């Protein structure tokens, strides 16, 4: 028979017959001499067991599904074939069945010297007696360690495959050393990795370290740590620096500090699913409504303002006609005082304006109809004035909800700052989306100005005292908010996402044989609640507003800027008219 047969099996529901599943489809690749003759024999055997099969001369590409490779170690061609595949193919998706009928064959020793690592799936079938075979799984924990033989089962002609144990011992790494790289931006953090002090510094590294301690216990492995001050970014060449550089060069197996998923990193490292739910966002107190819009126009909508205008015009017209009609009667003409001034339209307009502002006027109608109209005008406008004033008081104490997106933040009058971290200094200048790029260029790093990077302590203090939006890691920053903000100041905190990234995940050396084992360990940490516990010890949730009503709002000049602007315009206009009158009087 040929030294190897490669079988790609795609199972469907069927019945078992001597270890083969009926109604399966199978694609085979046969290598070695007498391929045609042996492929026909194998095809007949599979067909008799209800298995559809097709054969091809070579295995041209790495498949995306598990592949079973069967090798006859007694064939002379098998040594050459094993030498060809020794470097990379003893790993997923290949599964190997090595058959030997000669117990004293030197091929067994040759197989034990192969690169069969932890994630290899290699079964050695040794002939026992009368067509029976013992099945042993073989692997090694490290390339330089002895091969480990694990009894898997046996094969009998009558009963077929019999499994002895499904539990694998390869989950115990027997204290072998796994090189692990941590990212620490402040050296003092190495002194506080486990004591929960200085929680706001290198928080994500401290959480990752705590979880790695659990992972080492689960795997029974020794983690040997190295330290870098950056996660790693690609230089002008294909080389990477920082933690990713160590993973790329094979100096580390585990990237001990979680990092963001980026497409340019995928060819260099493998991500595994220990995500830490942390977010970096712009956080700010929603500014007062008067800081964003003109509150003096908000109490009434445009229909009320329009109705008010028509009502005042109607009252002025009616009052003017009533006074004019009264003055035109002969009796009134005779009773008219010589020194009484003749009412004009301007007097009535000033009277109406005074009524709108709830102020008096020097002019008062003398006839009954005019006085009745004046009383009705003052009464109706009094209710409108009261409603307007009450709304103004409420609006001056209100926070706006207008800043909800990055575009709103860019167009607002809020100043902006960013937490001074390695990844913020990388991601902000490299933003390509138009709004994010404009936000960085206009507010974070304006032309001819120093970039606005602050420590997290200073940034949160500015956020408390000023109209300021601070980009920070929220789980860390909210710890300072709880410590420094008064209860009512916690109300109205708003978050806006800037970084277009998902939750950070753990990184491994590319194609490391420990990947699956580490994934299983991380899943256990997550399902047991250890991950949630470690995260909650170092990260703080967003504060809850408990007593918003206790806040006292000061009214500043910015709240009264429209009234101040009207007063200033009036003073300037009156001075201009005064000067104009002086000039006219001299002429």
Topology diagram in text:
Elements: E1 4-10, E2 16-17, E3 20-21, E4 24-31, H1 35-48, E5 51-56, E6 67-72, H2 78-85, E7 94-100, H3 106-112, E8 122-127, E9 133-139, E10 148-156, E11 160-163, E12 177-183, H4 203-219, E13 222-228, H5 242-249, E14 254-259, E15 269-272, E16 280-285, H6 289-292, H7 302-328, H8 330-335, H9 345-356, H10 368-396, H11 406-411, E17 415-419, H12 422-427, H13 434-444, E18 453-454, H14 456-465, E19 468-473, H15 474-484, E20 493-497, E21 505-509, H16 515-527, H17 530-538, H18 561-586
Parallel strand pairs: 4-5, 6-7, 7-8, 12-13, 12-14, 17-18, 17-19
Antiparallel strand pairs: 1-4, 1-6, 2-3, 8-9, 9-10, 10-11, 14-21, 15-21, 16-19, 16-20
Helix pairs in contact: 4-16, 4-17, 7-9, 7-10, 14-15
Transmembrane segments: 302-323, 344-361, 373-396, 560-584
Family: Belongs to the glutamate-gated ion channel (TC 1.A.10.1) family.
Subcellular location: Cell membrane
């Amino acid at each position: 028979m040929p030294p190897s047969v490669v079988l790609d099996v795609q199972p469907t529901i069927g019945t078992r017959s001597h270890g083969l599943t009926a109604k399966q489809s199978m694609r085979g690749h046969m290598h070695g001499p007498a391929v045609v003759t042996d492929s026909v024999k194998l095809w007949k055997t599979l067909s008799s067991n209800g298995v559809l099969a097709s054969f091809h001369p070579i295995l041209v590409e790495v498949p995306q599904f598990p592949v079973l490779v069967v090798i006859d170690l007694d064939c002379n061609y098998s040594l050459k074939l094993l030498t060809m595949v020794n470097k990379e193919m003893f790993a997923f998706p290949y599964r190997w069945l090595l058959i030997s009928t000669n117990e004293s064959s030197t091929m067994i020793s040759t197989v034990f010297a192969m690169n069969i690592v932890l994630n290899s799936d290699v079964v050695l079938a040794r002939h026992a007696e009368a067509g029976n075979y013992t099945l042993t799984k073989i692997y090694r924990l490290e390339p330089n360690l002895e091969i480990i033989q694990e009894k898997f089962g046996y094969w009998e002609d009558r009963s077929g495959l019999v499994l002895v144990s499904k539990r694998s011992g390869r989950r115990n790494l027997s204290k072998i050393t796994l090189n692990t790289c941590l990212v620490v931006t402040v050296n003092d953090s190495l002194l506080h990795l486990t004591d929960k002090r200085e929680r706001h510094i290198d928080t994500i590294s401290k959480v990752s370290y705590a979880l790695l301690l659990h992972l080492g216990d689960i795997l029974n492995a020794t983690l040997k740590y190295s330290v870098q001050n950056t996660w790693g970014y690609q230089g002008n060449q294909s080389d990477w620096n920082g933690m990713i550089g160590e993973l790329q060069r094979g100096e580390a197996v585990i990237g001990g500090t979680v990092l963001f998923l980026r497409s340019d990193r995928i060819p260099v490292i493998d991500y595994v699913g220990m995500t830490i739910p942390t977010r970096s966002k712009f956080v700010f107190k929603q500014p007062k409504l008067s800081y964003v819009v003109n509150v003096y126009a908000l109490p009434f909508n445009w229909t009320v303002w329009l109705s008010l205008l028509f009502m005042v015009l109607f009252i002025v017209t009616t009052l003017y006609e009533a006074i004019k009609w009264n003055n035109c009667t002969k009796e009134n003409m005779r009773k008219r005082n010589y020194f009484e001034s003749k009412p004009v339209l301007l007097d009535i307009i000033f009277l109406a304006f005074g009524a709108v502002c709830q102020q008096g006027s020097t002019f008062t109608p003398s006839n009954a109809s005019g006085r009745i109209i004046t009383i009705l005008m003052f009464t109706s406008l009094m209710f409108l004035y009261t409603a307007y004033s009450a709304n103004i008081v409420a609006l001056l104490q209100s926070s706006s909800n207008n800043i909800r997106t990055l575009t709103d933040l860019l167009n607002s009058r809020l100043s902006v700052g960013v937490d001074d971290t390695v990844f913020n200094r990388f991601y902000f200048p490299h933003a390509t989306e138009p709004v994010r790029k404009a936000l960085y260029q206009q507010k974070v790093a304006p032309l001819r100005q120093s970039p606005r990077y602050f420590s997290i302590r200073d940034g949160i203090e500015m956020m408390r005292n000023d109209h300021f939006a601070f980009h920070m890691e929220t789980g860390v920053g909210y710890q300072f908010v709880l410590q420094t903000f008064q209860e009512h100041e916690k109300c109205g905190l708003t978050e806006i996402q800037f970084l277009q990234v998902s939750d950070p995940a753990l990184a491994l050396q590319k194609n490391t044989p420990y990947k699956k084992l580490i994934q299983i360990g991380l899943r256990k940490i997550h399902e047991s609640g250890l991950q949630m516990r470690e995260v909650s010890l170092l990260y703080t949730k967003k504060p809850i507003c408990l007593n918003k009503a206790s806040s006292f709002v000061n009214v500043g000049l910015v709240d009264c800027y429209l009234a101040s602007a009207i007063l200033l315009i009036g003073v300037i206009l009156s001075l201009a008219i005064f000067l104009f009158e002086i000039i006219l009087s001299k002429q």
